[in-house]
């Protein structure tokens, strides 16, 4: 174990994955072919959503999702500081302002109470939407956020990039999968290699709104459609109805995604087994993300908190355990510090979390022996 590299995340590419990609590379379609629709349909079914739109990466998905929800220059949205920058950047892409609300110190998720306080500190209509993040794989209680959003006329875009397969049980005792569209207007998932479903790059947007779905389909592909083609038109006919983008995913990426998706349920199960071993080893010794009752954490990450975070980070790296930090609070990044809109808002819980957080290896192919080595090194450092 001493000479083995253990990253914080790792893709699992099987022989079946390779086979389906090769078959697609030998087929008639490398892009804009049948695999994309199949991937979309199977993904939508896996999270209980009506519609899914595959894109070339999750950042592109966030971008056209806010556009489809009507976000424009000068509008304002609220998100969490504890996320990757793309959760906020998507609003900036259209010229909207990004305001931050603090996190819950135990779950690390966007605080409902802090979000409410920020909304109610401004005139009605000041904000247009909320972008909560299912951080580390733990679902946000969107039922409660939906009540707040409806009260103030806001839409919700769920950043579910960490959480395919995660769910919570709502007040009606119904299982609500991340991205199912029951309480959020749309959701976005990531297929980056360290995520649950690896496509190299890629993303998926889910929604239950036919209106939002049709806008997403236009925006994904240059704003172009053939839907108004009549018998008087030739097969070459198309219309560009709006200014869109080339955010399409390829067929060989979609083929890989279909194969990876088929293993995600089992992968989430294994991630939770890994989580339980970490919790058993660290219980009473250090803090880790809380798991509310009736929630399933999909566990993209397993985060612990330590006082000497830099010391532990360096110690683990010296032992070839490549732990990572998730994330530098977005409001502290130079770009957002320069344009900060709510610099007077108390974000101390996010900042305190960041000063102590470190993500340990978490992926389904992590062996028990490797995990025990990680645990031993963490405890020996403590």
Question: What fraction strand?
Answer: 5-15%
Q: Taking Cα atoms only, what radius of gyration do you get, to the nearest Å?
A: 21 Å
Strand count, sense and closure of the main sheet? 7 strands, mixed
> Can you give the mean pLDDT?
97
Q: In terms of per-residue confidence, which ranges show pLDDT below 50 for 5 or more consecutive residues?
A: none
Write the element-wise H/E pattern from the N-terminal end onward: EHHEHEHEHEHEEEEEHEEHHEEEHEHHEH
> Strands across the major sheet, in which order?
2-10-9-6-5-3-4
Strand runs, count: 17
The percent of residues in helical segments reads 25-40%
Calculate the terminal CA-CA distance, rounded to whole Å: 20 Å
**Number of helical stretches of at least 4 residues:** 13
């Amino acid at each position: 174990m001493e000479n083995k590299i253990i990253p914080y995340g790792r893709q699992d590419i099987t022989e079946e994955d390779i086979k389906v990609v090769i078959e697609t590379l030998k087929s008639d379609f490398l892009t804009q072919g049948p695999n994309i629709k199949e991937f979309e349909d199977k993904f939508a079914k896996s999270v209980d959503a009506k519609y899914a739109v595959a894109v070339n990466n999750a950042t592109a998905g966030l971008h056209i999702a806010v556009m489809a929800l009507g976000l424009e220059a000068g509008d304002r949205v609220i998100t969490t500081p504890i996320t990757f920058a793309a959760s906020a950047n998507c609003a900036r892409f259209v010229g909207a302002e990004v305001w931050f609300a603090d996190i819950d110190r135990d779950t690390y998720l966007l605080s409902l109470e802090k979000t409410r306080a920020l909304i109610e500190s401004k005139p009605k209509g000041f904000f247009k939407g909320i972008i909560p993040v299912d951080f580390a794989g733990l679902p946000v209680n969107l039922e409660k956020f939906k009540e707040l959003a409806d009260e103030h006329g806001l839409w919700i875009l769920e950043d579910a990039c960490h959480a395919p397969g995660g769910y919570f049980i709502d007040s009606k005792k119904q299982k609500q999968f991340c991205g199912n569209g029951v309480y959020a207007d749309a959701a976005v998932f990531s297929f980056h290699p360290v995520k649950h479903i690896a496509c190299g790059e890629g993303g998926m947007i889910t929604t239950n709104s036919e209106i939002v779905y049709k806008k997403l389909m236009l925006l994904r592909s240059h704003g172009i459609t053939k839907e108004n083609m009549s018998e008087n038109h030739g097969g070459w006919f198309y219309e560009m109805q709006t200014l869109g983008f080339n955010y399409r995913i390829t067929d060989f990426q979609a083929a890989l995604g279909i194969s990876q998706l088929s293993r995600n349920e089992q992968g989430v199960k294994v991630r939770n087994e890994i989580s339980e071993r970490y919790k058993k080893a660290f219980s009473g010794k250090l803090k880790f993300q809380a798991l509310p009752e009736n929630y399933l954490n999909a566990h993209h990450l397993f985060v612990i908190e330590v006082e000497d975070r830099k010391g532990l980070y360096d110690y683990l790296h010296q032992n070839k355990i490549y732990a990572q930090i998730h994330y530098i609070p977005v409001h502290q990044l130079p770009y957002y510090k320069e344009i900060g809109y709510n610099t007077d808002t108390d974000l101390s819980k996010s900042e305190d979390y960041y000063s102590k957080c470190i993500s340990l290896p978490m992926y389904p192919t992590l062996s028990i022996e490797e995990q025990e080595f990680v645990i031993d090194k963490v405890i020996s450092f403590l």
